[in-house]
Design goal:
Elements lengths: L1 E3 L2 H8 L6 E5 L5 H13 L3 E5 L9 H6 L4 H11 L3 E3 L3 H5 L17 H4 L3 H16 L3 E5 L3 H13 L5 E5 L19 H16 L1 H9 L3 H10 L4 E9 L4 E2 L7 E9 L2 E6 L1
Parallel strand pairs: 1-4, 2-3, 2-5, 3-4, 5-6
Antiparallel strand pairs: 7-8, 7-9, 9-10
Helix pairs in contact: 7-8, 10-11
The structure holds adenosine monophosphate (AMP).
Length: about 270
């Protein structure tokens, strides 16, 4: 595995790649990230992983500072899985050039996380746009856990005619059903049990929750989640997966999307 800190050197190395598969991450690698890399390895022998915690997508300095950092461990994990390239840029390497493409934010950015984290998606698209301009991958591997992010990256890619194909990857869960996230490392055992209860409740009552939400009884669902241990619920919504819009009536193909806090840790999921 070759490690790069400077984009110029990375570009020199990967410009010869024909089927570069790119997995962007913020590190503190877990089974979710590994599943993306393993899927990429099935299609391509040229795998690039990046680890960069992008300050522009955090709402507060405090949240950015407390984001888990495990670089040594991450490097040893990646060496074991045997990927080709690892890019670990510093802030300046990413932000010291003017990108060709303008940031495109689809209106799907206005709901769900976009409503509660105002500059988050602008920050995400900004960094992904820069990473794509540097790496020019043939395939870009993204997790469905961050469905809204995936769709917004897709619409940015389409709008700017960027020649990278998104490969969506299913959400990996722990044995209790909770979606694995780097942020889970900030939870105690007891807090993880609360997250598991919330996951089980939503999974078991998916249809009921859908009907409550479209019948304007969302506050009852929020109350249920609070009783199960959520300190605060940012949102619980039904999204029509094809239209990428809030559901209005029965019979639509939907997932329940939810974001909530356990202690000071914000978790998101959809199922
Ligand atoms: P992050 O490091 O959290 O920015 O995530 C990097 C990539 O891994 C994103 O495309 C995420 O959607 C994806 N990812 C994170 N957690 C999971 C998970 N539990 N299952 C599948 N993909 C995931």
């Amino acid at each position: 595995m070759k490690i790069f800190k400077k984009r110029i050197e990375l570009i020199k190395e990967i410009s010869k790649c024909k089927k570069l598969a790119f997995v962007p991450t913020m590190g503190a690698l877990h089974k979710g990230h590994i599943s993306l890399i393993k899927k990429a390895k099935k299609k391509s022998s040229e795998i690039l992983v990046s680890i960069y915690i992008n300050p522009k997508q955090f709402n507060s300095k405090k949240d950015f500072k407390k984001y888990p950092r495990r670089l040594k461990k991450d490097i040893s994990i990646l060496k074991k899985i045997n990927i080709s390239y690892l890019y670990i840029p510093r802030h300046n390497d990413i932000y010291s050039f003017i990108p060709k493409n303008k940031i495109f934010l689809d209106k799907f950015s206005k709901i769900l996380c976009g409503k509660f984290r105002p500059l988050h998606f602008k920050g995400v698209i900004n960094v992904v746009n820069r990473l794509l301009e540097i790496t020019k991958p043939k395939f870009l591997y993204l997790g469905m856990k961050d469905f809204q992010q995936l769709i917004l990256i897709k619409s940015h890619i389409n709008r700017n005619k960027i020649k990278s194909n998104i490969i969506p990857c299913p959400t990996i869960r722990d044995e209790s059903g909770v979606a694995i996230s780097s942020r889970n490392t900030q939870l105690s055992k007891n807090q993880l049990q609360k997250a598991a209860k919330i996951y089980k409740f939503i999974k078991k009552n998916k249809r009921k929750i859908f009907h409550k939400i479209i019948n304007k009884k969302k506050s009852e669902v929020v109350k249920n989640l609070t009783q199960l241990g959520a300190a605060k619920v940012d949102y619980v919504e039904c999204i029509n997966l094809a239209k990428k819009k809030l559901c209005k009536k029965p019979g639509e193909n939907y997932n329940i999307f939810f974001a909530y806090y356990i202690g000071g840790v914000r978790l998101i999921d959809n199922l």
